[in-house]
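Hey, quick one: can you model this chain's 3D structure?
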Amino acid sequence: MDVEVNSPSDAERASGGLGREPRPVTAVSPTVAIVAIVLVAIGLRPGIIAVGPILPSIIDEFRLSHAMASLLTSIPDILMGALALPSPWLARRFGRDPVILAALLLLAISIAGRAFATGVFPLLVATAGVGAGIAITGALIAGFIKARFATKAALLMGLYATALSLGSTVSAAVTGPIAIQTTGGWRLASGMWSVLALFGIAGWLAVVLNERRHRAVVPVSGQRVRLPLGNPTAWLVSLFFACVNFLFYAMVSWTSPMYREVGLSTTLAGLVLASFTAVFTVANPVFGWLSRSHDRRGWLAICAALSLAGLVPTALAPGLAPFIFIPISAIGLGGAFTLGMTLPLDNTNSVEEADMWNAFALTVGYLIAAGGPLVVGYLRDVTGDFRSGWWLLVAVSAVMLALTPFLHPSRSTHH
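Sure thing. Here's the predicted structure for all 415 residues.
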């Protein structure tokens, strides 16, 4: 059951601390909030996705191994997991809006700074800044959605996921051509995406200003919840989420380089990656709309099976119909991503509990997912091609399918 209550951080800020009576806290126009969520989400993924099409150029310039180069994707993944739990504490300590704005500013500066990196260490430091900005913003945006749109949280999470994928698609399609057609090369193609983070800052500033103009009394929830460490379903949900993101980040890192190695041009290889992110984007809301039942196991299984159906032919013959099989896997992963994000809602009875499940799933999921780009890159170094790495992705997809029968919603929730 979606319960319309405010988050603990809002409650504490409303009351000025625990044990006091609540004061009026800010509310926000739904239109302003939705536009801001979309603007922020569009700018959260290009800092990672844009690396894929230009990775061969970065490898050549800095003389990186494939395993080392994979850190440009794995570092953000690690931070997205590691910072999921402390992000709510930062919001309670300094306020949600200042923390989100600071994280978006860090993201913009880091994306731009990476384009000016003169060595491997500055390159990795800037990448860490990208990861931290994405991690903190993403964790707090999800909480904002659940707190302010509790009765429509699944719909808003679907919109959020679609906007994330839209940013991924545009950056995947545009980065490669800009890198090869401009004198700025990979540096311009990488650094220009900082502009989207600035749009996100503008959007969230609109939220702040709108909140100051419209005030409402929000009830304080005294509920205290803990991480679901002892709940088997929470671990299964987190593992499913980990599989989805393991596959997603491995594919956005290495799809374009793999197809360049089998003979496609930089532009065509980038378009294969763009076909993955575009179809992923379309699948996000479609499966969210199709999955009407509280028990989503059937649709989760279909998504996992589609992922497997696209990955097996690619592993068998990497050059075979990339614009068919890569999008097929994207359909499955796009649907699985959206439905996986709803699983914490399906198994919890309050915003606070859902927040803790979400933080737990993000932490476990992204820390495991960080191994996707790294392991595939390592296998490429060891074997000389990407085929063994793609068979690893097939195995992960099979695990994802095997998990789906066990992802039944908690009996204690009522929708």
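One thing worth noting: Residues 1-26, 216-221 have pLDDT under 50 and may be disordered.
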